[in-house]
Amino acid sequence: MRTTTRPAVVLLSGGLDSTTTLAIAKGRGFRVHALTVAYGQRHAVELDAARRIADAMGVVEHKVVTIDLRAFGGSALTADIAVPKDGLTAGIPVTYVPARNTILLSLALAWAEVLGAGDLFLGINALDYSGYPDCRPEFVRAFQALANLATRAGVEGSAFTVHTPLLRMTKREIIRTGLTLGVDYGLTVSCYDPDPDATACGRCDACRLRLKGFAELGRTDPAPYAANVQA
After folding, report:
1. 127 exposed, middle or buried (CB, 10 Å; 0-12, 13-18, 19+)?
2. How many domains does the chain contain in total?
3. Would you say residue 203 lies in a domain?
4. How do 7-11 and 119-121 pair as beta strands?
5. What is the pLDDT of residues 43-77, one digit of tens each?
6. pTM for the whole thing?
7. 221 within some domain
8. Using CA atoms, how far apart are residues 182 and 184, in angstroms rounded to an integer?
9. What's the CA gap between 208 and 190, in Å, rounded?
10. Is 92:84 a contact under the CB 8 Å cutoff?
11. CATH code, domain with 50
């Protein structure tokens, strides 16, 4: 595997995908600066998970930035809208947060420019995902083009690259990759509607995709779930 000693900004939510992405960036030799965004998400227990993960995985620096998207709402994750359980309806689900990945990548881009880092890592996936428009290859290409037009670094010739190493992986492949890299998935939180103690519901889309990935590997998910979910 090609390695580097360059700095990189990795968006770290505290979930399974972003943690695997962080492990991949470290495995490639990047000096990881992890960025977590507290955007008013109902599953705010993931912020504590992100702090644990950043500490356990030895990042160079971990920042938690607050920008409260509850001011706009429009999502089951930022407004008083029920999180769908046991399957989603057709179309873009109500767990989609308007412009979330655009906002998160913009914050990562700003920090990367200050750090002199040309590499951004985002743990999005276009296979085992919920149909969000900002998890598609077209979005990644467009944002990378914007990054190189809208920044001093880009205009002066220091190009940015948006890395999405999980983009075409299934959840099973993502988990298998992370286990190979030594990721402790017991530290992560993926559930959209967990209890305050981080016990996962096991029924939301995020839980169902995660459980499916572990089941396909013949492994038990180490995250805590509501009674009988993995029985």
Report:
1. middle
2. 1
3. yes
4. parallel
5. 999 999 999 999 999 999 999 999 999 999 999 99
6. 0.95
7. no
8. 6
9. 10
10. no
11. 3.40.50.620
